[in-house]
Amino acid sequence: GAEVLKDQAMLRDVVKAFVELGVRGRKAHVLRGDGRTQEVSFRLSRQVDSFEIGPENRGHRVPLTEVSAVYTGDSAQAKELTMPGLD
Prior knowledge:
- The protein is built from two helices and four strands.
- The N and C termini lie far apart (about 50 Å).
- It is of the alpha+beta class and about 90 residues long.
- A four-stranded antiparallel beta sheet has the order 1-2-3-4.
C-alpha cells in the first residue's frame, strides 16, 4: 500500500539524482590492479545508454547493455578486474 508507494518515490528520487550527477560528470576513485587507487572521470551519456570512465581525456566508453554485474571494491570479484587505460 502506502509503504510501497513511498519506497517507489524514494527509489525514483535516487535514480533521478544519480542520472543528473552522472550526466554532468563527476570524479571517482577506482582500484587499480596494483591495489592503489586512481582518480578518474565518470560521465553518463545524455541518452542514459552508456557511460564513460577513465583518466581525463582517455575515457573508456561502456554501453549499459554490456554491464552484467557491479562489484564493490571490497569484493573478491572486484579485485580480479582490470580496466583498460589505467596505469
